[in-house]
């Protein structure tokens, strides 16, 4: 099962992608996580990506496409995968379609997690991410067991640089301009499924399971 998560920044793509990955035993591939790991490790890719990410802008397509197309050729992707944060522009979607077509494959489901802009800024200001493993929490909706400490690795939890309110509004406008057109793209491809992302995390997941099948 090859799945794409669509939705605004902070809609809950990552939260749901992790749950999908666990239930259906397919890898979760997040381009945002890949870039953040590269930034943390000080790689040349990380250095390039950081300048865009900190401003709320998209990293150029050429830095992303090859990375993902290579990754999905790994052995662990044979049964499928859930892509989170990719594709994010029409050229990225076209490159993915082309790479899949070349091996007789296609995206089965593009799940759009719908959350209005008003809710997004509130959500992002409450998000906290682990500096060590990248796990994501929310002060109100998905609180860690110990305040400020990651449940999984005991790392410290911080507000992501790009979750500051001024950067969030830039990311939202970039989303509407460059990523929202993918909804039509995947609708035309017959793969689009939409879920209400404003309800409880577990209820959003139930709606997704109904789409994917138990
Ligand atoms: P990326 O990491 O992909 O960021 P994003 O798309 O902006 O998505 P987020 O991770 O912010 O949010 P999410 O939808 O996963 O929400 P989450 O589950 O955490 O990308 C970061 C940057 O990298 C980009 O800006 C760009 O520069 C670059 N980049 C990455 N991919 C790229 C690409 N393909 N091309 C070019 N550039 C690229 O949830 C958010 C919060 O809400 C959490 O605190 C969570 O606990 C909480 N929450 C989740 N669901 C619910 C719910 N139902 N109710 C209440 N709270 C909830
Ligand atoms: Zn951690």
TrEMBL record:
<comment type="similarity">
    <text>Belongs to the adenylate kinase family.</text>
</comment>
<feature type="binding site">
    <location>
        <position position="171"/>
    </location>
    <ligand>
        <name>AMP</name>
    </ligand>
</feature>
<dbReference type="InterPro" id="IPR033690">
    <property type="entry name" value="Adenylat_kinase_CS"/>
</dbReference>
<keyword id="KW-0418">Kinase</keyword>
<feature type="binding site">
    <location>
        <position position="133"/>
    </location>
    <ligand>
        <name>Zn(2+)</name>
    </ligand>
</feature>
<keyword id="KW-0067">ATP-binding</keyword>
<dbReference type="InterPro" id="IPR027417">
    <property type="entry name" value="P-loop_NTPase"/>
</dbReference>
<feature type="binding site">
    <location>
        <position position="36"/>
    </location>
    <ligand>
        <name>AMP</name>
    </ligand>
</feature>
<feature type="binding site">
    <location>
        <position position="31"/>
    </location>
    <ligand>
        <name>AMP</name>
    </ligand>
</feature>
<feature type="region of interest" description="LID">
    <location>
        <begin position="126"/>
        <end position="163"/>
    </location>
</feature>
<feature type="region of interest" description="NMP">
    <location>
        <begin position="30"/>
        <end position="59"/>
    </location>
</feature>
<feature type="binding site">
    <location>
        <position position="130"/>
    </location>
    <ligand>
        <name>Zn(2+)</name>
    </ligand>
</feature>
<dbReference type="GO" id="GO:0004017">
    <property type="term" value="F:AMP kinase activity"/>
</dbReference>
<keyword id="KW-0963">Cytoplasm</keyword>
<keyword id="KW-0808">Transferase</keyword>
<dbReference type="InterPro" id="IPR007862">
    <property type="entry name" value="Adenylate_kinase_lid-dom"/>
</dbReference>
<feature type="binding site">
    <location>
        <position position="150"/>
    </location>
    <ligand>
        <name>Zn(2+)</name>
    </ligand>
</feature>
<dbReference type="InterPro" id="IPR000850">
    <property type="entry name" value="Adenylat/UMP-CMP_kin"/>
</dbReference>
<keyword id="KW-0545">Nucleotide biosynthesis</keyword>
<feature type="binding site">
    <location>
        <begin position="10"/>
        <end position="15"/>
    </location>
    <ligand>
        <name>ATP</name>
    </ligand>
</feature>
<protein>
    <recommendedName>
        <fullName>Adenylate kinase</fullName>
        <ecNumber>2.7.4.3</ecNumber>
    </recommendedName>
</protein>
<comment type="function">
    <text>Catalyzes the reversible transfer of the terminal phosphate group between ATP and AMP. Plays an important role in cellular energy homeostasis and in adenine nucleotide metabolism.</text>
</comment>
<keyword id="KW-0479">Metal-binding</keyword>
<feature type="binding site">
    <location>
        <position position="92"/>
    </location>
    <ligand>
        <name>AMP</name>
    </ligand>
</feature>
<dbReference type="Pfam" id="PF00406">
    <property type="entry name" value="ADK"/>
</dbReference>
<feature type="domain" description="Adenylate kinase active site lid">
    <location>
        <begin position="127"/>
        <end position="162"/>
    </location>
</feature>
<feature type="binding site">
    <location>
        <begin position="85"/>
        <end position="88"/>
    </location>
    <ligand>
        <name>AMP</name>
    </ligand>
</feature>
<dbReference type="InterPro" id="IPR006259">
    <property type="entry name" value="Adenyl_kin_sub"/>
</dbReference>
<keyword id="KW-0547">Nucleotide-binding</keyword>
<feature type="binding site">
    <location>
        <position position="127"/>
    </location>
    <ligand>
        <name>ATP</name>
    </ligand>
</feature>
<feature type="binding site">
    <location>
        <position position="160"/>
    </location>
    <ligand>
        <name>AMP</name>
    </ligand>
</feature>
<comment type="pathway">
    <text>Purine metabolism; AMP biosynthesis via salvage pathway; AMP from ADP: step 1/1.</text>
</comment>
<keyword id="KW-0862">Zinc</keyword>
<feature type="binding site">
    <location>
        <begin position="136"/>
        <end position="137"/>
    </location>
    <ligand>
        <name>ATP</name>
    </ligand>
</feature>
<feature type="binding site">
    <location>
        <begin position="57"/>
        <end position="59"/>
    </location>
    <ligand>
        <name>AMP</name>
    </ligand>
</feature>
<comment type="subunit">
    <text>Monomer.</text>
</comment>
<dbReference type="Pfam" id="PF05191">
    <property type="entry name" value="ADK_lid"/>
</dbReference>
<feature type="binding site">
    <location>
        <position position="199"/>
    </location>
    <ligand>
        <name>ATP</name>
    </ligand>
</feature>
<feature type="binding site">
    <location>
        <position position="153"/>
    </location>
    <ligand>
        <name>Zn(2+)</name>
    </ligand>
</feature>
